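User: Can you model how zinc ion sits in this protein?
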Amino acid sequence: MLEQIYKNARAIPREGDYTDDQGMCLCGECGKPRECFIEHPAGSRKGIIKAVPCQCEIEEEERYQQRRSLEKFQDRVVELRQHGITDKAYTYQRFENDDGRNYVVTKKCKQYVSKWQTMKKHCYGITFTGAVGGGKSFFACCIANALIDQGVRVLVTRLSDLVRNRVQDKYAVVDFHDFDLIVLDDIGVEGATQTAYNIIDDIYRANIPLIVTTNMSLDQLKESTTIEKQRIYDRILQRASYPIKVDVTISRLEIARKNAKDIQDILNEGL
Ligand SMILES: [Zn+2]
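Assistant: Here's the modeled complex, given as structure tokens:
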């Protein structure tokens, strides 16, 4: 009976396979056994010969599992980006598209990404200030996209959009606990309403880092004209505590100087 059950459990020989002197199938590729002998399996008096994976099959399975987990991770990144970045334009703002004009800022932003675990642990965030068109949003989104690529849950939005959604639909409340980082682009254009304060307070209480960009200066944020504004910006600056000023541009001469330095570093390497 048992023999009948295990009858088909032997390895099906493949091209190149051979048998040892016990009649067991060996892999033609790796030479490892594709069958093993099991003495007295449960309830049986006789031993049986059973197929087992050889080295090639074990490695093939490992490769398959690695491919699967990579695919799953990539699917998750796509999902995170769809879920966290509603404005398509933000998704193209990446370090790969940086022209290096503000290389000091670029370096700081890349450091933020590479030190993410520390930033997250201490809820360290950034306030990007600077003139219109300088690239504040660009750098904030570079950080967001680079972290999303690593599987970090980032929400990129505008405070004014969050306020509008919450006012229009009281159920459209974003649970900030679903995210590891919030990026608010262009703060300062929303009204200093109770809703705006509640949203910022929710982000604060979620204990996650906050990155904001604004056309206001740091002084304007610190010394607002009204109490309502002040309490919103106080809360924001508590989380987005590190200021980075993004200048409009650096001159061509400075780019040339920077390139020359880069070339020199490369050519002098190891000298
Ligand atoms: Zn093999």
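A couple of observations from the model: The pocket of zinc ion is lined by residues 27, 29-30, 32, 54-56 (CB under 6 Å). The chain has two domains: 1-84, 86-262.
User: Helpful, thanks.
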